[in-house]
Specification:
Elements lengths: L2 H25 L3 E4 L5 E3 L5 E3 L4 E2 L2 E7 L2 E5 L1 E5 L2 E3 L3 E4 L1 E5 L2 E4 L4 E2 L4 E2 L3 E8 L2 E8 L4 E8 L7 E12 L6 E8 L5 E4 L2 E19 L1
Antiparallel strand pairs: 1-2, 1-20, 3-8, 4-7, 5-6, 5-20, 6-11, 7-10, 8-9, 9-14, 10-13, 12-16, 14-15, 15-17, 16-17, 17-18, 17-19, 18-20, 19-20
């Protein structure tokens, strides 16, 4: 084989390899963000899209654990964001309108529960985009202070993470909901497995998607 033919073959192989790498990179699962003028682009590593400072959850948070139950009417993300390629986070979530459904005679101090600073990520499971929120440091997700004469709950520590799915992840929209699912969450309260459920919304100035 002549040197020219060898050189041509090497060029073809190099271009093929480059195209394969480029295609793999382009198809990698990640957050996408709306481009100025239309269309969307990958949210690259280190890039962050910050959300509105106060977004209220559209559905209540419910925490069930060992026969006990706590319910909050709304939740507000503090400094929430997505970060390329698959990161999510928030300074915390402030839940309000919190009450103790079971046992009777107990109430939540101030009617509020605040989480620790949170970090997390999204992942692709079949056609579903799943998320996980966990404490940025340590394992304590939140501290729950209960009061009431004869209330046996006292100060509760929620340990672990919450998980679920992102609604309409492939659609380039400014608002999306994060549905907390008991089966996928790893949260314990008073050393008892908890079953958190609820729905919290995120809203941004630009459209965003995940695929």
């Amino acid at each position: 084989m002549s040197s020219r033919v060898k050189f041509a073959c090497c060029c073809v192989l190099a271009m093929t390899a480059l195209c394969a790498v480029t295609a793999a990179s382009a198809s990698a699962f990640s957050w996408w963000i709306e481009k100025t003028g239309g269309g969307e682009e990958v949210l690259k590593s280190g890039m962050r899209e910050t959300f509105d400072p106060a977004i209220t959850g559209s559905l209540p948070l419910v925490l069930k654990f060992g026969g006990d139950e706590i319910k909050c009417t709304s939740g507000t993300y503090k400094e929430g964001f997505i970060e390329g390629p698959t990161g999510i986070g928030a300074t915390g979530i402030a839940y309000e309108g919190c009450t103790v459904v079971k046992p009777s005679g107990c109430s939540i101090e101030g009617g509020k529960i605040s989480t620790a600073e949170l970090t997390g990520s999204i992942s692709l499971s079949g056609s579903t985009v799943e998320f996980t929120f966990k404490p940025k440091s340590g394992t304590q997700f939140a501290e729950i202070n209960t009061t009431g004469s004869g209330c046996s709950l006292g100060k509760l520590k929620a340990i672990g993470s919450i998980s679920g799915s992102v609604t309409k992840p492939k659609e380039l929209t400014k608002e999306k909901a994060f549905d907390i699912e008991p089966a996928h969450s790893s949260l314990t309260i008073a050393a008892t497995k908890a079953e958190p459920s609820g729905n919290d919304g995120y809203s941004a100035e630009r459209g965003w998607s995940a695929h």
